[in-house]
């Protein structure tokens, strides 16, 4: 009988290989993830924690407005950096993708391609920084037309399909039904949406040139939007008060707001509870397009996202959680606002279809249709455009100046702000 004993050196190698194999996929092993989010995200995080036996979450509640600052501090300290974070305003992804705050993982080749194909067109545009996908949207806040259906019928109006028809509606309203109005001429978000819907380059990323923006507010597209807003301000159908200001709220409560171009969450969170619009009044429609455009360009007022730390020790677990948060039926069917992942959106929207508050069951259909026309220019910037508009335009228009004559000052302020944020300006 031959000697079949294994030399000690071979035993050591075999044992090391076995341990290595076991370390890569041990039965029942857990991945530990630290996740940050606001109070609304905690419920989703807890649900995922309970669902996944192989993941242990350390959930940290962070106020939305503090997220970027706290991440910057954690990165500098080299401790307490989360594996996954909720970004309350998706354009903030640019602030988390700088040389100093290089937090976000590039996801283009990491996230399931099949899932990515089922997001609405341009839904993740605010998550793209210098051509790289660095987060996934959690909700969309694209615009549509909210309107008082009984009052529109009483006045003999049809819902405007173009911005030209929108302005004509305002002119007729001012002449025949003074006191009724269609929106605000000083609200930064509303102005941003109307100007961008015209195709204006307020701060458009230049393809192939990192950290380079095109800023041109003197183009015909910018000027046509500004001129429309000025004329409607003059006739009083765009008022010099924002949608959350007391004057605007009072007039809306008095039934004077006939129509408003606003985000998907406006019905549930403003029209119903704040303006106290009676049940059976509010309907929705596709946002306007310009007559020479084939389709509308719909802007957003909000919409968050989720991102992952590029140096996470558990990338696969973090990506799996990211995909679940943004695409799973279990999570998104009860989302607070419109989900960006089309296969689950109808499940979410059924509550709107069934809600007897609305004048008809077409509100969700309008949201779905508008989601197909999200503007790819609604992207990530390292500065807040509404704040710039609020600084330059809002007080000027409120004091009697026109938007048209204010555009040069707005352009210069955008350029200055962008340069401070580290951008180059195309052509300058």
Q: What's the short story on this structure?
A:
The chain is of the alpha/beta class and 428 residues long. It has helices at residues 8-24, 39-51, 67-77, 113-116, 149-155, 163-176, 188-197, 220-234, 246-253, 266-271, 315-327, 329-332, 342-354, 363-371, 385-398, 403-420; strands at 31-37, 55-61, 84-87, 128-129, 132-133, 136-137, 143-148, 183-184, 201-205, 212-216, 238-239, 259-263, 282-285, 305-308, 424-425.
Question: What brief labels describe this structure?
Answer:
single chain; alpha/beta; D-Maltodextrin-Binding Protein, domain 2; five-stranded mixed beta sheet; three-stranded antiparallel beta sheet; 16 helices; 41% helix; 14% strand; globular; disordered N terminus
Task: Report what the structure shows.
The chain is 41% helix and 14% strand. The protein is an alpha/beta fold and 428 residues long. It has two domains: 30-140 and 302-352, Periplasmic binding protein-like II (D-Maltodextrin-Binding Protein, domain 2, 3-Layer(aba) Sandwich), CATH 3.40.190; 143-299 and 381-425, Periplasmic binding protein-like II (D-Maltodextrin-Binding Protein, domain 2), CATH 3.40.190. It has a five-stranded mixed β-sheet with strand order 2-1-3-14-6, covered by helices on one side. It has a three-stranded antiparallel β-sheet with strand order 12-7-13. The protein has a three-stranded mixed β-sheet with strand order 9-10-15, with helices on one face. The longest helix is centred in the C-terminal third of the chain and has 18 residues, at 403-420. Residues 1-27 have low confidence and may be disordered.
